[in-house]
């Protein structure tokens, strides 16, 4: 959800679950990498299959909307570069320093 929204994606309902449990299920894509997700407290978004099917069907029937969302997604992603992230972090640090110096 850091960069996905209703304007650039088909959002799917989900529940936060322990990834180890999900990776042990019969529907798991890759059990081979379970050890990467074995740290205590880790959670990931497990999609609701009914919601996923509904969104996939809707996307299939609405190709023009898919195109618009894809174009918006591309615009949104161009804003997310290392340079942009660095500039944002620099501005945030400078703001904190200014506030601290005003006290």
Structural write-up:
The protein is 53% helix and 8% strand. The chain has helices at 19-23, 49-61, 63-78, 82-102; strands spanning 14-17, 44-47. It is flat. The mean pLDDT is 88.
The H/E string reads EHEHHH
- Dominant shape: flat
Radius of gyration of CA atoms, rounded to a whole number: 19 Å
Strand content: 5-15%
- Class from secondary-structure proportions: mainly alpha
Proportion of residues in helical segments: 40-55%
**Poorly predicted tracts of residues:** none
Largest sheet: 2 strands, antiparallel
On the 0 to 100 scale, the average pLDDT is: 88
Query: Largest beta sheet: what is the strand line-up?
Result: 1-2
Kindly report how far apart the N and C termini lie: 36 Å
Query: What is the number of strand segments?
Result: 2
Count of helical regions: 4
What attributes characterize this protein structure?
single chain, 103 residues, mainly alpha, two-stranded antiparallel sheet, 4 helices, 2 strands
Brief write-up:
With 103 residues, this protein is mainly α.
Topology:
Layout: E1 14-17, H1 19-23, E2 44-47, H2 49-61, H3 63-78, H4 82-102
Antiparallel strand pairs: 1-2
């Amino acid at each position: 959800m850091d960069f996905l929204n209703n304007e650039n994606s088909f959002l799917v309902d989900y529940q936060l679950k322990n990834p180890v449990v999900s990776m042990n299920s019969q529907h798991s894509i890759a059990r081979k990498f379970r050890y990467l997700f074995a740290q205590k407290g880790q959670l990931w978004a497990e999609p609701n299959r009914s919601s996923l099917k509904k969104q996939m069907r809707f996307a299939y029937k609405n190709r023009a909307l898919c195109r618009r969302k894809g174009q918006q997604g591309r615009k949104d992603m161009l804003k997310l570069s290392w340079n942009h992230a660095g500039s944002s972090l620099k501005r945030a640090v400078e703001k904190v320093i200014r506030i601290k110096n005003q006290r």
